[in-house]
Amino acid sequence: MNPFATHFESLEEFADRVSELLQCPITIEDANHRLIAYSGHEHYTDPARTATIIHRRVPERVINSLWREGVIPKLLQSEEPVRVAEISEVGLGNRIAISIWRNKEVLGFIWAIEMNEPWTEQQLDLLKQAAKSAKNLLLQLQIRKNKKEERIQEFFWKLLTGHFPSPHEVIEQCHQLNVHVYPFFSVGIFQFQQHIQTQVERQIDYLLKTTQQLAVPLYTIDHQRLIVLVAPSSNIYGEAHIERFFRSFITQMKERFRVDIMMGAFGNVYECYTKIAKSYEEAQTVLKMKRAFPHPLANIQGYQHLGMYQFFDLLFEKKRHGDFHNVALENLKQYDAQHHTNLVETIETYLDYDSNVNETAKALNIHPNTLAYRLKRISEIGNIDLSNMSEKVKLYIDMKLDKYRTT
Amino acid sequence: MNPFATHFESLEEFADRVSELLQCPITIEDANHRLIAYSGHEHYTDPARTATIIHRRVPERVINSLWREGVIPKLLQSEEPVRVAEISEVGLGNRIAISIWRNKEVLGFIWAIEMNEPWTEQQLDLLKQAAKSAKNLLLQLQIRKNKKEERIQEFFWKLLTGHFPSPHEVIEQCHQLNVHVYPFFSVGIFQFQQHIQTQVERQIDYLLKTTQQLAVPLYTIDHQRLIVLVAPSSNIYGEAHIERFFRSFITQMKERFRVDIMMGAFGNVYECYTKIAKSYEEAQTVLKMKRAFPHPLANIQGYQHLGMYQFFDLLFEKKRHGDFHNVALENLKQYDAQHHTNLVETIETYLDYDSNVNETAKALNIHPNTLAYRLKRISEIGNIDLSNMSEKVKLYIDMKLDKYRTT
DNA sequence: ATAGCTTTTGTGGAAATCCACAAAAGCTCG
DNA sequence: CGAGCTTTTGTGGATTTCCACAAAAGCTAT
Q: Which parts of the chain are coiled coil (chains A, B) (predicted)?
């Protein structure tokens, strides 16, 4: 006989019933570790549970330790209860956890605190039955969510394409759709190795929902790309926060789910919501440039750190139009071709290494004096003053533009 | 009784007659020291005269010494004969010269070689009469020239505005107008302090016609600007030749005629005649940038050496559109405002001096260690890697663009 | 092949840079 | 005012750069 066969008004009522039967505190989470319901009886409660209830989500530190300990992978693999030993550094007491399944998908988890005595087989069976019964209750939530999700997706695309002329409209829409409005934001893109499958979509959703490094009020998936709206908590260090989040997202996708992300990119941080489209464009520019200049931009994600590559699209357009042919560079190329020398490579490397003689010589495998000699020749043949920033800049950009052409 | 009252078939005939009467070699030049006629009698001839006859113009070295010795200024001031002592380093023997006048304008010169004996008063009078008679003969030449000149002016403006789609048409027109076609060319502009008066026009014409540093097949005057088509003799060192010519033109205008030229500028050297319009635009860009950045571009005249300023128009357009606001720079500005520091000035000067610590410190009147400290702070506050060329370039350009805005 | 060029590598010394550390001066805020 | 911060200047030493000069190696054209 199933003790949960009765009708429950709410999930809270269900949680209380489970707690009553098992004589311990119960917490129910969705697949993304957001709090769905918890029992209210007066029992001992560990700090991790208290924090979860207060913030309506499991703290990220706790989630991370659970992954590290292998608990969550186990929960995602089987329908059996999992015993979790105390993890005192995150305030987690002894626990019993079980996943809630529908078909092959995990809808959520039930967490029980293991009080003084170890659980009996009977108690574990009871928990399994509870997990089965929770399924239907969770499904109802799910359906309500999905409908809303679709409308939110549409809204996000409108934002990305600059559909809203005034910020008021955006904020109004946010309120209607129950999307939290943050003071600062940026648009980011993750480029995946492959088309993003449904399973990966769930894993993305999981990571985005569980992270607490910054808020991700909106995201969408488009072929091989994941587009996110991120809201760092501070304006001044926003860039750095997003940067860190992007790196951890990429490593977590890899380590936890074995999903490779080729690269991430994000635009500037803005305050006005009409600038979402601009931030999105900037993120796209970063991706484009990273593809064209993989080596120098390997560690760049933010538009701010794109440096001079920010305006390469513009310059390249002009160059294709036949403008700025650089006589100095042409002379150097010609000299290289006629004398089998490497003057262009030399000056490019030299500038890549910020005019540092030692490093450049090392990179080119030549003696520093050889480098000095070549630089002298370069300034002669190209008629360039290598101690003039403006000329150096022009030459550097022209060389890089040449490479861009070939992409 | 005037011995030159008869009709002369040609200027040569006239020159011979003068030579006969004075018993010495006679050379007649126009106002720009081009050979118009010379006597053919067998007399002693100094090397300067020989060279003049062979090249159909007075060698530039000779003209320059005549200016230096004050001969030409004297000729341009009075109608009296001028005695010229030997200038052996340019092969010029003892001479008597006189200018040919119409109203207040000098049309040309008559040169006589003073043979063994000094001239008598009678001989000098004869020369004065010859100069008077030469006037009418020269005037006829002048009128024929002026008509052609107008059509050439129109042609040049068509070239500057890109009116001809194919080079063949250009070359055909050149042949029709008797304009020499050169293999390489560039368009240059001189910006004068004031509107160019008729008198200055003649002085310009004089300098352009007498120079032999490079060919100036076409030129025109437009308000405060003189626009020239220059044809350097070599392609490889074309830039340098034009550069030198521009400098000497400016100093000569100043020294000889007390006319101030604010600046000169010229575009790239091209081979195809349809690119005249482009070279002209480039020259205009140089002028524009020199106006906006007088200090760093004080010594720049050629478009090739504009360096990064070549594309500032383009970038500024984009910037005005609201793109690339540089968070690093904004942070630095804010810090400067709040703490009464000079970080922006510091980094700008540092980059102006090509990252040279000593020079920068000297320019800013601070201790090198102070500079080092400030640079550390700059990289912290702006979150900039100052050993990354691309970031430096971006920052430098953004700072200079900021200055461009205020122009 | 060899003379005459360019290019590479080496040596050594003066100058500049970088770095760590510390004293002093200046500014801000309770 | 004075504690605590930032900023400036100073000292000294390891490292790097710059420069001049020279030997050696490589290329090219006669």
A: 124-151
**What is the spatial distance between Cα A35 and Cα A29, in angstroms, rounded to a whole number?**
5
Q: Is the pLDDT of residue A233 over 90?
A: no
Identify the CATH homologous superfamily for domain A324-405.
PucR C-terminal helix-turn-helix domain (1.10.10.2840)
Residue A366 and residue A361: Cα distance in Å, rounded?
5
Domain segments of chain A as ranges: 11-144, 161-303, 324-405
Token readout for A145 is 């969510």
C-alpha dihedral sign at B206, B209, B212, B217: positive
Question: Cα A17 from chain centroid?
Answer: 39
- Which residues 6+ apart lie within 8 Å of B236 measured at CB? A331
Q: Kindly give the parts of chain B with pLDDT less than 70.
A: 1, 235-236
Window A:349-368, CB contacts with B under 8 Å: 351-352, 354-356
Residue owning tokens 């011995």: B3
Strands of A105-113's sheet, edge to edge? A35-38, A26-30, A105-113, A95-102, A82-84
Residue nearest to nucleotide C6 (CA to C1'): A339
What class, spelled out in words, does domain A161-303 have in CATH? alpha beta
What are the φ and ψ backbone dihedral angles of B349, each rounded to 5 degrees? Answer: -65, -40
Which residue is closest to A384 within chain B, CA to CA?
B305
pLDDT, average across residues A393-401: 95
A396 closest CB neighbour out of B318, B354, B389: B389
Q: What's the CA gap between B79 and A381, in Å, rounded?
A: 52
Residue B185's nearest CA partner among B153, B227, B217 is: B217
Helix B276-292, helix B121-160: angle, nearest 10: 100
How confident is the model over A114-160, as pLDDT tens digits?
A: 888 889 999 999 999 999 989 888 888 777 777 778 888 889 988 99
Q: Name the architecture of domain B11-144.
A: 2-Layer Sandwich (3.30)
Q: Secondary structure of A102-168 in the HEC alphabet? A: ECCEEEEEEEEECCCCCCCHHHHHHHHHHHHHHHHHHHHHHHHHHHHHHHHHHHHHHHHCCCCCCHH
Domain B161-306 belongs to what architecture? 2-Layer Sandwich (3.30)
pLDDT in tens, B221-231: 988 999 999 99
Protein-contacted bases of chain C (C-beta within 7 A): 6-11, 16-22, 27-28
